[in-house]
Amino acid sequence: MEIYVVKPGDSVDSIAQQLDANVEQIIFDNQLEYPYKLALGQALLINRYTRNAERAAAVSGYAYPFIGEKVLEETLPYLSELRVFSYGFTVEGELIPPSYGEDGWMIAEAGRFGTSPILTLTPFGPDGNFNNQLIHSVVNNEAYTKTLIQNLLMIMEQKGYKGVDIDFEYILAEDRDAFTAFVWQVAETMRALGYQTSVALAPKTSSRQKGLLYEGKDYRALGEAADHVLLMTYEWGYTYGPPMAVAPINQVRRVVEYALTEIPAEKVDLGIPNYGYDWPLPYERGTTKAVTIGNVQAVRIAVEQGAQILFDSLAESPYFTYVSGGISHEVWFEDVRSLEAKFRLIREYNLRGCGYWQIMKWFRANWLLLHDRFYILK
């Protein structure tokens, strides 16, 4: 497959003729809507009906139980692991099932496609946000830890999960070693029974990095404890921050390079965002709130608004601006060019694979490109 960037005067028909490609295939692969207008600077995936897969990769994706049935069905062939988001727990270690719906149907669907269903464990408080006091309570109390592990094993056996993903964020610095010990205990218990354990890691670039996201996670120790880890290499551009790329490749590379000084490459998955943000301008810290949008939706906004899509060469990410209702907007998102940059990084450093946050919106070109570049481990 190759990538074509739309130039002035291009149409789907002229591009197909120029590249000796199939018009209907271009429309289908890139989810173009009738009358198939294009945005200047838009990146299109062109299918050459051959594969260039160079190596195998493990691929995971997070999904809530309210994911569309069709979206899940179309995505599962490209996933090694489906990470169901998420189970919570109380301060005493009692397990709380997903609040967004029943997860059994997702597990059944994963089995149908040979994809391993993984239970994602998160410390969400009553307000729906990460709560480090929940973490503090459980990891510092042997009885609570034992209760939580027993409850995890019971649910996994009952429902058919193949492993657990520990996604704890904002861990207190004082709880760093206790959290590591907790992960060791979970992982050793799981391994003895044939289950796997993974840990989601905030994107550190140094062992001495300050901040609530970073100080509670010991990359080296957690890499030793877990079967594999996910680097959450996204959210540089985020809901309440200033407009910028969600996963700028220059910053992503820094995280990978640091991680590999602490954790073997065969244990490391690269986090990939399956979304973008639309910021109203001017940006005011503490006031401005970006809207989360899908990558296909971002291109459709550019087409509707007649905006030119630009590409930041340092971040290797697409962006554009437009004005609607008298309000200026700036949009950053992912396209096949930015994804290709991330796939190159996986190959360059021989990482285990990648993990998507999240797979709720169908982005066909991403999965086709991934499948073209890698053999998916099942």
Describe the 3D structure.
Strand 13 (310-312) and strand 14 form a beta hairpin. By secondary structure, this protein is of the alpha/beta class. The protein has an 8-stranded parallel barrel, surrounded by 6 helices. A 5-stranded antiparallel β-sheet has the order 12-11-15-14-13. Strands 1-2 form a two-stranded antiparallel ribbon. The chain has 12 helices and 17 strands. Helix 11 packs parallel to helix 12. It has helices spanning 12-19, 23-29, 69-75, 104-112, 132-139, 142-159, 176-192, 219-225, 249-259, 295-305, 336-348, 364-373, and strands spanning 2-5, 43-46, 55-63, 81-89, 95-96, 116-121, 163-166, 196-201, 228-231, 268-273, 276-281, 291-293, 310-312, 317-324, 327-332, 353-357, 374-376.
Features:
378 residues; alpha/beta; eight-stranded parallel β-barrel; five-stranded antiparallel β-sheet; 17 strands
Please outline the major beta sheet. 8 strands, parallel, barrel
Q: Roughly what is the average pLDDT, rounded to an integer?
A: 97
Percent strand:
15-25%
Widest sheet: strand ordering? 3-4-6-7-8-9-10-16
Query: Which stretches of 5+ consecutive residues score pLDDT under 50?
Result: none
Please state the CA-atom Rg, rounded to the nearest Å. Answer: 21 Å
The shape, in one word, is globular
First and last CA, distance: 23 Å
Indicate the structural class: alpha/beta
Please give the number of β-strands: 17
Could you spell the SSE succession in H and E letters?
Answer: EHHEEHEEHEHHEHEHEHEEEHEEEHEHE
The percent range for helix content is 25-40%
